[in-house]
Structures are given as structure tokens and as C-alpha cells.
Fold these 2 entries.
Entry 1:
Amino acid sequence: MTSLLTLSGALMRGYLRDRAALFFTIVFPLIFLFLLGGLLGGAKNPRSNVVLVGPVAVYDGLPAHGKAKVDQVLAITRSHDLHAALADVRNGNEAAAVVQRGTGVVIYDSGASPSSAGAVSSVFQYLVDASNLAAAGGSGGSSPRVSTAGQAPRVALSTSQVDDKSLKEIQYLTPGILGWAIATGATFAAASTLIVWRQRKLMRRLTLSPVSVRSVIGARILVSLGIALAQTVLFVVVAVLAFHLKLSGAWWMAIPLVLAGTLAFLSIGLLAGALTKSVEAASALANLIVIPMAFLSGAFIPINDVPSWVQSISQVLPLRHLNDAVLDVLARGDGPVTVLPQLGVLLGFALVIALIAIRLFRWDDA
Amino acid sequence: MTNAVVAQDLRKTYGELVAVDGVSLDVGAGEFFGLLGPNGAGKTTTLEMIEGLRQPDSGSAKVLGLPSWPRNQKLASRIGVQLQTSAFFERLTAAEQLRAFAKLYRVPVARGEELLELFGLTSRGGTQVERLSGGEAQRLSIACALVHDPEVLFLDEPTAGLDPQARRNLWDLLRATNAAGRTVVLTTHYIEEAEILCDRVAIIDHGRIVECDTPEKLIRKVEAVARITVGAGQLDPDLLRKRFPDAVVTEDETELVIASSDPGPVLAELADHHALRDLTMRGATLEDAFLALTGREYRS
């Protein structure tokens, strides 16, 4: 136990001091998340389309110049058919539909484009606040005012999402990029540890100490699992705070999935390390495996949009199963039991590839 | 004297290459023993089979009375090993390496500080191993091998690639380590190192031990050849060649060298011709012994 902890501590320290490793496993994927999250979120239309269904007092009561200001941000259309308006939101023609029933303002938006939904809700939040302020009768006079008579009950704003099954952008980006980050981290860690320890004979040095081989391998696995967990926590927190990722019920099931995925990627790294002789060659081979795997597994683009033959290929990739399963529990709201098959696939993959790697591995370079 | 190391007819072949071809040796407790030979002679493979890193194709090795293959945990905590490449944890500082090894060998971590001090590395304790100089890294590597106070210390080319000053510093440390009662077995391709440090030296070439004895006896065994050197251009070399047919006479732009087993008459002849400018003479060395034993110039 002491040996395991000592070795894990040594490995962890080494990792934390490796700027390149930190960059590629943590910073780089985060940059990707921000880039893709920002690009996909805001590029379609600088103004968000909003349909106002029936009279909406908080907007209607605005003076002309107030309306003009709102129009700079939102492309407002009017409608009387709530059903049709919600359909438009659902299929993405409109960012949101807004209804005011008495004092309740309801925004129907789509989880598909959180950035435009965010724009709509912040504008209406402002309108509602302003009208409340004016109605409270205080120093009033600010431009948007709402024409409610007499006692001014507060106008309340609520939002309601129309679609929750068709996931887009941040909802699939987070599991995708997270999976890619974990695949990169674990694959490279295993490959380079194997090669560097072989080159430097650290492994041989350790076999001549009272340390068991089990402790050495255990430490490598333990540290990689720790790093993967840290990546997961960081990614989910960033996605929730910066991009309003909504976590669904069984999100905690992502943890065992990530751990099983890490084992699968460690085995790929082990294989890459067993097949190559230098760190450079191992990195190249790991890249050659991880990057296509990320694309084919839907880490950056939704896998449902690609041709079916690509989908069939992707079924053999552990990242595909990790992505699907994490998406299911993190965003789709599936129960913990539904992803057990994927968990099994990941563990089985890890076992099979690790056994192959061990067969191919040679201690001597010559 | 009980033997710390006993190797019997060790053999190892890699494909076509016979790396070690029947090596037997005994190292007494407390002895400083050297395996001397050029690169590729089979020194490292021999040492690794004795340490228990490699399985011999045939033959056997015992250290402290215990067979070294298969790996034995009880033996592991009684021997110290320094490998040819410095086997360190990546990006850990010198002090952290020693602490890690102390924990792995289950000795108090304070022992690490002690060794830093002993090996003159206290000021480098906070430096990551990647930034240590060659000499510092070698000293740290040997310090790591000594962390658990082993009875036998194995060193594989401990001074390879070091500058003369660093090499001399390390020799002092190794001598002190041996003087403290530990058996030391090292490989080296530096003749001088073997001559200065070792109680006994095994000259190894093409995977075989050619001769094994104290450096003094090895030198005495070869027909002693003296090398007499004088400044060039004082005397016709052909004259000397005619006069001393057994001697080897060579001249280049700066010096005239006469290698002879009977230096007296040569010196007299040089004096007769007033050709004594820049005279130097040295007796036989281990290098001459190597030449005589293997039939070829020593090339490290």
C-alpha cells in the first residue's frame, strides 16, 4: 500500500509539472469547448427571432425608441397562434415564443440554442424588471413601462423549454469534448509512461527494489483515473457555468463511465507504447488513433448526422460508447441502468486490448 | 572470506549475437570488484544477470547466497543497483527522488537528506532531475541505490560521460562506500578507473573473462614493456630499429617512441647521441596488459 501511494504520488507530481501534458489534457480541450460552444451558439443569426403571441404588455407598453432598442437585439414578429409559434421554436425557426397572460410573462425557448435563448430571456428579464420598477411607483419614468392599471401586481417572468430530446451544441459538445480530453490524456499517459520507463530503465530499477509489479501498474492506473475524474469535474462545471449545460437526473453515472473509458484508453496507450520504440513515435501513433476516433465517435459533431457506414465503424470505438453513454445520463435524462451495456463494452474493450498489448510488449528495445 | 557474489558459467545470446559466453566469477564480501572491457564486451549483460534483471540462457548467479533469478524480494532489499541510464521518476526533484526511493524501500525518509548531504547534493535538493548535470545525476543515482544501506552495491559504468573532475569526486565517494564495509561490483570501460578503484579486475572481451586478478598482478603477468619517448628529429629512427630489432619504434611530427622490454640499452644509446630532449618513460599499465591479453589495442 505504501508503495502504491508513493508511486502514485511520484507520478502525479510529475504530471502536474508537465506543462505540455496539462495543456493537452486540460487547457486545450477547454479552449475547444469555448470555441465550439461559442461558434455554434452564436453564428446562425446575430439577432434572435422572437415571436410574440397575442398582446405582450411589457413590450407593447414601450415607447417607440424603447422598441427600437429591443429590435436591435431581437427580430420581433407577432402571432396569435401559440401552437404554430411553439412549432416554430421547436424546429428552430424562432429562438423563442413569448406570451403574457395577465402578469405572467412566459418565454418558450429551445435548449438547442442556449445563447440566443439566453439573449431573449435577458432582454425580457430587463423589460419585466423595468416595468415592475415603474409599477412600484417609485422614481419611475424610465423608458419601458407597462400599462397595468391601479395596484401593480408584480409581473413575473418564467421560461419553459419546448424540446428536451433533440440535443444540440453544448449538450452534446460537453460529453464529446470531455471524452476526447480523457482519451487524449489516458492514451498518451500510458504510451509515454511505458516508453519512458523502458528507455530510462526505471521499470527495471523498480523490479530490483522490493516493489511489486502490481503496485507499479496500479499506480499508473490510479493516477490516470484521478486525472480523468478531475477533467470530468472541471468540464462539467465549466459547461454548467459558462454554457448553461443542464445536468439531468443520473449525471453521477458519468463517473463510473468515465473511469471505465479511462481504462479502455489506457489499454490503447499500452498498445501504442508496446508497438513503438520512441516517445515521438508513440505520440504519433496515439494521435493517429485518438483524433480519428474522436471524429468518428461524434466528439465534435453529432454522430447521427454522419453516413451509416461511419456509424458502423464507430461502434467498435470505445469513445463512441463513452460519448453515447455520458450523453444519455448527463443530458438526455436516461436512468443509470440504461448505460450498463456501454459500461460493459468499455471494460471488455479495456481487457481485450490490454491483453494484446501485454503479449506484444518487449522489455528490450533491440 | 564468504563470497558476496558467485556466478557460474553465465551465458546469454541475443539472436545471432553471443553477448555473454560462459562467465564465472566470485566476489568476496567487502571486495571492490571491477568488470573491465570495451563497449559491447558483455559487461552490462553479465552484471544484469548477476543482479537478477535478466534470465541467463544457462548458468546461474547467487548474491549473498540467494539465487538472483527469479526475482527475490528478500534479496532486493539487500542489494543496491545503479543502472547505466539514470532511472529516475520524471520531473521529480533530487530530494523527492530520494524520498520516494526511501519510502519504496521502507526506510525513514530522513535517510534521503543524509545521502543528499553525503553526496554533496544538498544545494541541488530542489532541482528537478532533468536539470542536474551529468555528474550530479550519477551521484544522485548512486545515492538512490544506497538509500536502504545495501550489503552489495552494483554499479554499471558509474562514471561514463563525466568530466575528469566529476569522475575523481565520484571515485572518492565509491571508495568511501566500499570502506564502510560494502561489497562493490562495477563495470567500466576506463582502464584507469579499474586500476585505481578495484581490488580485483576481470578483463572481459567478446563475452568471456580473459583474465581476473588484482591490477598489479595483471600488469606483472604481461611481459613488461616500457615506453620511452623523446622529442622528434634528434635521431634517425631507422638507426634505432637496426640497433634494437625487438623494440617497436615509431616517430611522428612531435615525438619518437620506443617500446621495449629492455629499456636500459635504449636509454644508453639515446644518451650517446645526445638525444634526450623531452625524455619521458613509463612502465607497463593495465592498458598494456589488455593489449597483451586480447591481442588488440584497447578502445573504449
Note: Residues 3-216 of chain B form a domain with the Rossmann fold fold (CATH 3.40.50.300).
Entry 2:
Amino acid sequence: MNSTYETHEHDVLIIGAGGAGLRAAIEALAQGVRVGVVCKSLLGKAHTVMAEGGIAAAMANVDGSDDWRVHFRDTMRGGKFLNNWRMAQLHAQEAPDRVRELEQWGALFDRTENGEILQRAFGGHTFKRLCHVGDRTGLEMIRTLQDRGVHQGIDVYMECTIIRLLKDGNRIAGAFGYWREQGRFVVFKAKSVVICTGGIGKAWKITSNSWEYTGDGMALAFDAGADLMDMEFVQFHPTGMVWPPGVQGILVTEAVRGEGGVLRNKDGERFMERYDPKKLELSTRDVVARSIYTEVREGRGTEHGGAFLDISHKPAEYVKRKLPSMYHQFLELADVDITKGPMEVGPTCHYMMGGIRVDAETAQASIPGLFAAGESAVGLHGANRLGGNSLSDLLVFGRRAGFAAAEHAKRSPAAVIDPSQIEDAERQMLLPFERSGGESPYAIHEDLQGVMQNLVGIFRNEEDLSRAVSEIDKLKDRTARVRVEGSRLFNPGWHLARDLQCMLTIAEAVTRSALARRESRGAHSRIDYPGLDDTWGKMHNVVVKKADSMTLYESPVLEMPDDLKQLLAEDGGAK
Amino acid sequence: MADVPMAQATLQIFRGDREAGKAVEYRVPLVPGMVVLDALHSVQAHQAPDLAVRWNCKAGKCGSCSAEVNGRPRLTCKTRMDSLPLDQPITIFPMKTFPVIKDLVTDVSWNFRVNQKIPPFQPRPGVEWKMYQRDVDRVQEFRKCIECFLCQDVCHVLREHGKQEEFGGPRFFVRTASLEMHPLDGVSRTKVLKEELGLGLCNITKCCTEVCPEDIHITDNAIIPLKERVVDEYYDPLLMLVRKIRSAGKA
């Protein structure tokens, strides 16, 4: 290997420093192995910091009848039974312990009158289940994990982007990346790699996601030969800001509805009474997003193409206390005082249910030594994620991934890295500097966002999706000729040129999976196939790289044990 | 529509690195509700693709996009263009207290090193995990901090006097306060505050409080109570006497 590369060696390398990555790191470290965490941004800025409403865990602090069985059932029902049942079970059973653990590491949740952790209502959850801190739960969580991890001794490589997973034969051997600051390349040798890189929202125009959400981890795993699954299931959060244009897509927490917020159309009608008269605003996200979208499409939207969300019937002090960041966000960015009048909201691309296919117990992917957890992994949420189940997902499966990755590393001899992989990745990365023609990555990115927004959005059909596949092909050709200006020193244009490749890979996986699934289920709505289809209800779409191209195949949904089937058949709230 | 002149703003953005740099002028079309970060993104997309800017959430929650707008430390994602005088150029410079890496991106790694000096949360042995809202309220105020480091940027002990080696800065007094006032914490950090974070160097000019985008009362609620704790422990004559007797007894 070229000895000029800066090289670091760990037993376990974790890519991504959000909730899943940090929880994995803490757990791996506790197993006595050497742990490194690589992240694209500064520590503490990962997407988890933007989570608002809360962590779902059946602690029964507010509603005494709650327990893991009800949480399990809510999760499966919300996911339209496409969930990995074992993940849904482990998640529901372990989430309360993971929340208590955060508290023991210094997190301070809002309290009940008895001095316990307070829980609030959220869409699709039978009971008040979301442990929260006002509307800044993610900040509390990431700060707690960050401090715990740093003081326990994880090595953090900030502002470093991984561009290739390195292999030794079929097994994982490490990762190769660059420092965003200086543009220098860096090699990480590792026996286990855990991918915790989050989602792909930046491929859509209207999104709540940050620049980091470009599907890197999924694309890295795909390129290394891992399976991606359920990629057609993209969550559009019902309530993003719609006005003014600069803030379009910024998240408006579901906690607004959890605390009693009401949705109305321009005629003042509480339209959720027509779409889900029982759960109303607290229906699942797929239903509420489609309802708002339909109201707008049928001419009952607000001036700026959204719906009104109103919490102003609650006392102003209560709103400011329970939803402080919403209050400031609207006051400062949209000149709206939410204690006095309604917000304008509309759907925004928010979360990827699909991702890297993993084993439920160990979070191991289909490549030995490769693990994945959080949004970049698939399984827990099925066809639609319930609000609050993401933060608990990060903790439950972050911990499991960290544990299993450490165990795997202990069992594994050192890997040998064939330097040709590194040289190839480096060459690919530097090509955009060498071209004299070619266009800016920003222009291609904007066009990709248009394609995904218009053709692979909330409602889909065969014609749009087929067109999207060919549009993505054209964008790939343009990306292959992309040109970058300036130097390697902190150059966002250069970084985007690489992120664009990841986005295109994942956008193609989403579009082709969506084209294949000829039914409507959860977040995947086909206008040309509007109903549920029992055959598709037993199948996942899996995407894998074969002979350098993307191949799709169907894989059966795991059979559930009878006692859990029985549980799902039961009605009502209580166990 | 092409002949309708679009409203524009003029930006003077610092372009450069550790060695050299200067303000470069860009003109951007104005959009309703536009914030300074939108203007920077517009420059990136259409004029200077290598313009270095940090950002993440674009909603005031992550504290990544700090810069000095018209000389004031601000989050660029929360600074509305229509709140600035648009008849003159808007200057956008990197935070002065930290070394420039490139353009608006500065080296803030020092902050992460300071944080490591602060002993983490340590619950009192055998503690019962019950806390009441009235007891956590004041700590929750400190935990709103998004680590934008604007308070560090504006603090004259760091900005003018460069006391990074001996002073932790307002962010880490807030951090320490959140641990010290945690209802179940059992560690004292007064020695660290005095000897490693240099709390005594703060002369409570409240500049940090003024720039905090989370409206944390840094000076009144964090720094002053911490100063009182340090004074109680180190300069209280009665305490000194008790300590002397105790140490004499041990010897």
C-alpha cells in the first residue's frame, strides 16, 4: 500500500455520529475493543439533533396500561405488517431500558408530577408513549450520547467523509475517505464497520433533511455488495413549513398535533374527519401526508399550497413551554405567532424506511463484518414509521450493532487490504478536477431533486416512475462528466460531486423498487394500484449489485410466531 | 417576466484561508423570507461552488452556520435578509475568535478539547431516579445550548485577549452549570472551574448572553451562580479555617 496515506487502525469503525453511531460506539467500547467514529460534520450536529417530538418507549409513566406488546402492535400496524417482526419485538421490549440508560448518563427529560419521565401522545401510538424534552428531544439525546462517548474514550474523526468500504475477499477490512478540511485522503483499517449514516432526503427538493442526507452509507454498502431492501418506502412527514420559500420543508414537529394541534383546510374544515375519523390528526404519517396533499390538489389548500395547523386554542404559555422551538421558528422565519394563529404546513420528505438489510439480533448486513443501524438499516418500520420510533430505533439497534461488531472484531484476524481498491477510489474522487468541460454538481443536484419531487413523490404511477428511471440514467451520465472548480481545501462543490453519486444510486434503488411494487402500502401510494395486495404484503423488494449493475429481486416477509400473530389479531388499546 | 428587474442584495463575503483573504462581492436575487444562509447557498450554486460554509439543519437547531453578519455574531440560518439594510452591502465574515480554515469555516476544535476537561455527569451513589420539573427547569435552560459557539466568538477574554489556554469560555460555563445543578449529580467541579476553566477571568460583561440564539441567560443563570460556588469553596474564611483544622488533624 502507498505509505503516504494517513492510516488509523481500529477494531470497530463506525461511520456516522448520530444517535445510532454514538450508541454503537459506546457499546463497542464497553466490550473492550478499539473504536473509531467518522462523521461528515462536527460532533453533535448529526441529524439526530433535529429530532423534536420524542422517543417512543412503553414505560407506562402516563398511561399505566401501556406495555411492549401494545407498542409492538402499534409499530406493526403502522408499518402495514411489512416490518421485520423480530426487530419490532426487540425494539418494543428494549426501548424503555435504553431511555432509562440515557437518564442515567445525564439526560433530563420533562417530568410527570410523580417525578418520572413525562410521555406525550403521537400518531399511531395507542398510549401516551413519547419521552420528550419540549420539542428538542434529539438535542438532549445527542448531547448525552456525545458526552458519554467522548468521556469513555472513543476516537472521533470529525468532518471526514468515507467514499469506499475496503474489503479483504468477501469480508470487511476498513474504509477509505477524505478530510473535508484539507482534502487529504485517509485509510481506516477495521475488522468491523458499522454504518449509521442516516437517510437520503437531499435527493428530494422539499425535505426536512440536511446536506448530509445523501444516502452515503446505503450506497457504500450497495457498492460493496450488500442487500438493500424496502427502498420504495420513503416517508413524507405531513407537516413541513411551506412559506416563505426559503424555509420550505423545514420540519414542524408532530408534537404540535400530539399536544392538540388541529388541521384545517382553507374553508376551515377539519378535514381529517373525512380521512381518519377515529384518530384524526394523530393518524399515521402516511395517512396524514396523503390527506393534506389531496386537500391541496383538490383546491382546498391554503394560499401557499398547504393546510392550516392550529394550536392557538391552547394557552400561550403552554405552547411556548411544550413547543418552544416551533414558537421561535415560526416567529423568526415566517412572521407567524403560533400562540395567536395557525401555521401553514405541507408534506416534506423526511425519512427512509428502507435501507441496508440486516439481521434483527446482531444488525449484521449480508457482508461479514458489515453492520448497520438506525435510518440506514431496514426492518423495524416496515412500510411506514411511527413518529418517535426512530429515536428508540437508534438506541436499541445502535447498541445491538455496537455489541455484535465488537464480538465480530474479537473473533476476526487482522484483514489485508489490497491497495488497488484505494487507488481506484482516489482516482475516481480526483477526476472532476481534471476535466476541462462538464457542468457544476449543483445544477445536476437541482435537477435530481426535481425528478424525485415530481415523479417519485407521495403519489406514484407507472408512467412517472418509468420516466424517473430514464431521467436518473441521464443524470448519471451528466454526473460522470461533472467538473469541480477550486482546490481540495474545504470545497463543498467537490464534496457534492461525490455525494451526488450516492444520491443517484439510492434514487435509482427507490424508483425501481417503487416501479416493481404494484400496490399501495404505507408510504408507497400507487395511483394505478390503489389498494393493498396480499401477495405483495408477503414480499420485500431487494436491490443488489450484480456484475456492476443494479438487480432487483423479491424476498419473502419473515413468518411471525403464533403468539405474536395472536397479539396482532387482538383489538383495542389494552393488552 | 425577464424584463422585470428582480430585487437583489449585495454580499461581501470573506474568501480566503489561513494565509490570506479578502472580502469578495456577490449579488444575489432576493426571495421572500430569505435568510443569509439561503443567500450563501445561492452564491455556491451559481457563482462560487467552492465557497466554504458550514450548515446542517437550517432551522436554528444545530448551531453549525455561525458567522459575523454586518459585524454581529449570528446564526446565518436565522438572520432574515429583510432584517438587514439592503441598500448597502451585507458583510459576512467568519467568527473572529477561531482560526480560519477557509472562507466562513473556522477551526473550532479547541472547544471540543475544553469540553473534555469537564468531569462528566456522575450520579450520587444509591440515588433514586426521581426528579421533579421544578428541579430540572433551570438545568433544561442550559441544555438548550446548540453549541454554535457565538458566545465564545464574542467573549473578549477569548476574542481580544486570546486566553484560550487558561479560559473555557461561556459555552463551557453553561455546560458545567448544567452538570453542577443537575439534581442527581454528585461531583464538584469548582476546582476545574477555578484552575482549568479560568472562571475568574470572566468579568460579566454579558456579551455572551446578548448573542445567544437560544436566549440562555448565560451570565445571570450560569456564570454568576458558578462564581458564587467557587468563592464559597475557595475564599470563604470560615471554610478556610475548617479546612485547615481538618488537614492538620489528618497530618
Note: The first strand of chain A starts at residue 6 and ends at 15.
